[in-house]
């Protein structure tokens, strides 16, 4: 509109090269600034995931609640009543639901991000944007469903408290935002490493789908940590999700073990995992289109 | 003064052939050990040029040693046959994948349109998709909001903007998608064949939009097989062949070189039993001089020499004339004139000459195919072996106004008025 024969504003060129594309780049050359510039895109991806998930469903976002509820009922019947696994004196429904809500966030983050490259190959093959935008948007859109499930869990908890059950949410709930960050970080970290490797080695996609459900049994979801015999406990604690889930349940239900040293371990594990994940992802994203 | 906005230095791209995924782990290990020992990568083959039909070696160079400078405000057309490396080049510049060697330096923001509607989600409404697609192409939410009305206006789907795009007709879908892309304001725009979609009116609109992009000093890279669009739009051209830059220059030089290449090379398809075969053929004026240009209404001669490997009583020869879109426009055969080519003795070389009179096709480029055979079959058929151009001139067409290119032929006529 500035010139009569053009409806574009005039072109102003920078003096320096804005970008130099090379075959290999430095491993640590991760452009987080660019990712920040694409924050609108991340939020639009979140919106897309959310809207498209429930288009043409009758129950809509109610599915967020139905899913953990049914799983809880199933677990209560099988693990609580048939197998008779103790729950530290906490109502079985509540115990399982707290575990499931926490675990679901982690596992959906991992499952969804681990398919980043394969599922989005058609977009990635046509246009450039920071590839990390997609797994990050997945983590955020799963956070939305986590919050809904968490609120539902709180109502559930309130109901049991009114009925006089022996549960006591305590000051540890202040840790919950931090725990959520750890779950997101672990899910994202493992997810992007796996997605980077699956561009070449498809075997991993098969491993992930059942691997995550097996992993759940190695995490104190259906049993309290205190039930684990001393000689196995170290193995269960090596799982970085153990302290996270255990602290989550202790904060809400008031029964369990909390060990800050274990939490610190999970935190460090997450940081290292994320760093490694981003470096690998960053390396793969440049040429994955040739192999995917 | 023009500034160089894109600079390619020795850019090459290598692809692995065949089934990626089998044996890649061992290749990776080989590479790793070679690297660790300081040797060259054993899987990189140097000096094997890109021939898609000869698969020797498991790796292929899709691009080899590309050096190119592109200045601001230039509209560069990239032409070449399928597999010449055009799309790979665009992919490298739009950062979809990385070069294997060399460097690409870029000044300014790049937007690439390798496809229209990348990332469109069928369940989302037109409005939601405008935002999503715009953001994928690199716009911020604010930029999209400020152009939203223009985009909707340009696409012409205003009524349906709150309907999920899965309910759109394919034409509406494409128009909406292109509208978003057309309102990008990058310094460099990369476009690959997207004009192949939409109806004629929309294509015109799209080309107009790209012209106005370049007028504002922006750089456009355009790949297309539609040479008319390339000539209309581009100022400069490059011709790619087998992964290498063959030629660089003015767009008309490039397109005509490309057309010539199509005749020279493997487009020269030949079929038939070869009981009789053409040895040479030429197009001449009535004075016998070889020509490749005639004026509308002119006469010219096609002379062909052929040799027979058997005794032959009777045979026929035809000329098929096609235009540069490969449409069959005209046909000449000796049978029409009651002329007989007969009594050909074995081993003799014969020459046939045919005069085509008052050529009445609209100005443009044409190709002649030669056929030799009889009612039982084809002896020799050479497709598009003679290329020539028809120019308007003033002997036949005396109209003072330009020729309407939509018409394929011009008919001779006489007029009366009472």
Order of helices and strands of chain B: EHEEHEEHHHEHEHEEHEEEEEEEEEE
**Low-pLDDT segments, ≥5 res of chain A:** 1-7
Low-confidence stretches of chain B: 44-56
Task: Supply the number of helical segments of chain A.
Answer: 12
Provide a brief overview of the structure:
The complex is a heterodimer of chains A (292) and B (418). By secondary structure, chain A is mainly alpha-helical.
What's the structural blueprint in terms of helices and strands?
The complex is a heterodimer of chains A (292) and B (418).
Chain A: E1 19-21, H1 32-37, H2 39-54, H3 63-82, H4 92-113, H5 116-119, H6 121-124, H7 133-162, H8 176-198, H9 203-217, H10 230-238, H11 241-253, H12 260-285
Helix pairs in contact in A: 2-7, 3-4, 4-7, 4-8, 4-9, 4-11, 7-8, 8-9, 8-11, 8-12
Chain B: E1 4-16, H1 24-36, E2 59-71, E3 75-80, H2 86-93, E4 101-106, E5 110-113, H3 126-136, H4 141-155, H5 170-182, E6 188-192, H6 200-215, E7 219-223, H7 227-233, E8 236-241, E9 244-250, H8 251-264, E10 270-271, E11 276-284, E12 293-295, E13 300-308, E14 312-323, E15 328-333, E16 341-344, E17 349-356, E18 364-374, E19 377-391
Parallel strand pairs in B: 3-7, 3-8, 5-6, 6-7, 12-19
Antiparallel strand pairs in B: 1-2, 1-4, 8-9, 10-19, 11-13, 13-17, 14-15, 14-16, 14-18, 18-19
Helix pairs in contact in B: 3-4, 3-5, 4-5
């Amino acid at each position: 509109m500035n010139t009569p024969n053009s409806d574009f504003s005039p072109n102003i060129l920078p003096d320096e090269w804005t970008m130099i594309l090379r075959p290999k780049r430095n491993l640590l050359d991760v452009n987080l600034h660019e990712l920040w510039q694409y924050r609108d895109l991340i939020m639009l991806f979140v919106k897309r995931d959310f809207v498209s998930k429930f288009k043409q469903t009758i129950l809509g976002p109610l599915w967020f609640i139905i899913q953990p509820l049914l799983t809880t009922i199933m677990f209560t019947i099988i693990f609580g009543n048939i197998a008779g696994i103790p729950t530290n004196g906490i109502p079985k429904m509540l115990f399982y639901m707290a575990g499931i809500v926490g675990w679901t966030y982690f596992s959906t983050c991992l499952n969804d991000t681990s398919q980043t490259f394969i599922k989005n190959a058609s977009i990635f093959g046509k246009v450039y944007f920071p590839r990390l935008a997609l797994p990050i948007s997945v983590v955020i859109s799963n956070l939305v469903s986590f919050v809904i499930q968490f609120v539902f869990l709180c109502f559930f908890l309130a109901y049991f408290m009114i009925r006089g059950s022996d549960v006591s949410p305590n000051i540890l709930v202040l840790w919950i935002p931090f725990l959520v960050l750890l779950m997101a970080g672990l899910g994202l970290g493992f997810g992007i490493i796996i997605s980077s490797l699956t561009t070449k080695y498809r075997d991993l996609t098969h491993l992930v789908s059942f691997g995550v459900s097996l992993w759940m049994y190695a995490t104190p979801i259906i049993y309290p940590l205190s039930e684990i015999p001393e000689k196995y406990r170290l193995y269960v604690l090596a799982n970085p999700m153990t302290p996270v889930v255990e602290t989550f349940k202790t904060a809400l239900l008031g029964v369990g073990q909390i060990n800050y040293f274990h939490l610190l371990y999970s935190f460090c594990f997450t940081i290292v995992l994320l760093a490694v994940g981003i470096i690998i992802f960053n390396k793969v994203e440049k040429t994955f289109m040739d192999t995917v | 003064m023009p500034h160089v906005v894109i600079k390619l230095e020795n850019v090459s791209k290598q692809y692995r052939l065949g089934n990626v995924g089998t044996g890649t782990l061992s290749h990776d290990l080989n590479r790793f050990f070679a690297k660790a020992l300081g040797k060259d990568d054993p899987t990189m083959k140097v000096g094997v040029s890109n021939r898609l039909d000869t698969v020797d070696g498991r790796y292929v160079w899709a691009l080899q040693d590309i050096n190119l400078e592109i200045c601001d405000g230039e509209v560069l057309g990239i032409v070449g046959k399928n597999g010449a490396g055009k799309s790979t080049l665009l992919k490298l510049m739009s950062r979809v994948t990385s070069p294997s060697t060399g460097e690409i330096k870029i000044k300014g923001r790049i937007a690439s349109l390798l496809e229209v509607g990348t990332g469109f989600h069928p369940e989302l409404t037109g409005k939601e998709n405008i935002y999503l697609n715009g953001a994928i192409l690199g716009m911020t939410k604010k930029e999209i909001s400020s152009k939203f009305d223009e985009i909707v206006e340009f696409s012409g789907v205003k009524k349906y903007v709150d309907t999920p795009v899965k309910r759109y007709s394919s034409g509406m879908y494409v128009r909406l998608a292109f509208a978003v892309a057309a309102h990008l304001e990058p310094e460099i725009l990369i476009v690959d064949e997207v004009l192949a979609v939409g109806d004629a009116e929309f294509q015109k609109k799209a080309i107009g939009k790209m012209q106005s992009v370049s007028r504002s000093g922006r750089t456009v890279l355009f790949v297309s097989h539609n040479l008319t669009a390339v000539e209309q739009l581009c100022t400069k051209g490059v011709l790619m062949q087998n992964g290498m830059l063959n030629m660089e220059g003015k767009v008309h030089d490039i397109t005509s070189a490309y057309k010539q290449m199509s005749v020279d090379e493997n487009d020269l398809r030949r079929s038939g039993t070869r009981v009789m075969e053409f040895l040479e053929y030429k197009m001449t004026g009535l004075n016998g001089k070889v020509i490749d240009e005639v004026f509308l209404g002119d006469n010219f001669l096609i002379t062909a020499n052929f040799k027979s490997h058997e005794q032959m009583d009777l045979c026929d020869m035809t000329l098929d004339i096609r235009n540069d879109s490969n449409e069959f426009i005209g046909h000449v055969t000796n049978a029409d004139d009651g002329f007989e080519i007969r009594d050909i003795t074995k081993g003799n070389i014969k020459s046939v000459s045919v005069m085509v009179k008052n050529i009445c096709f609209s100005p443009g480029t044409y190709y002649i195919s030669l056929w030799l055979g009889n009612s039982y079959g084809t002896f020799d058929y050479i497709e598009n072996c003679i290329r020539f151009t028809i120019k308007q001139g003033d002997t036949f067409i005396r109209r003072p106004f330009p020729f309407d290119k939509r018409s394929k032929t011009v008919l001779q006529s006489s007029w009366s008025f009472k």
